TrEMBL record:
This is NAD(P)H-hydrate epimerase. Its EC number is 5.1.99.6. GO terms for molecular function: metal ion binding; mRNA binding; NAD(P)HX epimerase activity; nucleotide binding. Its cofactor is K(+).
Length: 227
């Protein structure tokens, strides 16, 4: 039995945990990154060349932290930004200044062909529009070569509430989603493109009087089991 949430409900819980409980955002980002690295470690993925695709919001911040953790384990990882870094959120810029001290290579072009595993940290629950044309093209090309993809929180391009594709969506082998299972991962194309979905606890707290709008789902899911 799992509690399903909409994008908005997840964002309210995020904000409450940070603003009311006082949990630093960078702690949540670090725990999210560690959760994804746990899943990578427990999986049977080819880690010869991991390519992290990072966007400009907190989903991207998760991605930069994941790249740092993998690099610190001696894994061959490259980081590619999707979008204009100058427009990135502060959380991403903080992660960037940290990772630069570790010496991680930032690749400009998307070296999909060499990658043996792709970490999709472009957009998460903050997706609020159709993807830009260029990104849609890149995603369709990536889907075509069928590289294994681990989606961070949501497959990029899937609306976390409706499960619809916003122009294009990166098909994931596995989706590691934080806190609660987003209802978009169970509906329409979102249910298909998200692959195996694992819910990981990153320390979010739900307000006492919080009213979930969705019923508990029967769907089996991996709770945040220790791996
Ligand atoms: N909050 C927390 O504490 C934690 C959050 N966590 C992580 O954060 C993720 C949510 O982060 P997020 O709200 O920054 O949104 P995200 O999905 O990164 O999008 C980035 C920005 O892109 C923009 N944008 C949207 N759609 C667009 C489009 N079609 N085309 C172009 N641009 C578009 C939009 O910016 P705007 O347009 O609103 O200025 C948006 O802000 C969540 O999924 C999880 O991974 C975890 O670390 C746990 C702790
Ligand atoms: K993502």
């Amino acid at each position: 039995m799992t509690q399903l949430v909409t994008a908005n409900e997840m964002q309210q819980i995020d904000q409450y945990t940070i603003d009311v409980i006082g949990m630093p955002q960078d702690v949540l980002i670090e725990r999210a990154a560690m959760a994804v690295v746990d899943v990578i470690g427990a999986g049977h993925f080819d880690l010869n060349h991991v390519l992290v695709l990072a966007g400009l919001g907190n989903n991207g911040a998760d991605g930069v932290a994941i790249a740092r953790l993998l690099y610190a384990q001696g894994i061959n990882v490259s980081l590619q930004f999707v979008g204009n870094v100058n427009r990135a959120k502060d959380s991403v810029k903080r992660q960037l200044s940290i990772i630069e001290a570790y010496g991680v290579v930032r690749s400009e072009k998307s070296d999909f062909n060499e990658a043996t595993l792709i970490i999709d940290a472009i957009f998460g629950v903050g997706l609020n529009n159709d993807l830009p044309e260029g990104l849609q093209k890149m995603i369709k090309a990536a889907n075509h070569i069928e590289k294994p993809v681990i989606a961070v929180d949501m497959p990029t391009g899937i609306d976390a509430t409706t499960g619809e594709v916003r122009g294009a969506a990166l098909k994931a082998h596995t989706t590691v989603t934080f806190g609660f299972k987003k209802v978009g991962l169970t509906k329409r194309v979102g249910g298909y493109l998200s692959g195996d979905t694992i819910v990981k606890d990153v320390g979010m707290l739900v307000p006492e009087d919080f009213e979930f709008s969705l019923p508990l789902s029967q769907s089996a899911t991996h709770e945040s089991e220790a791996i």
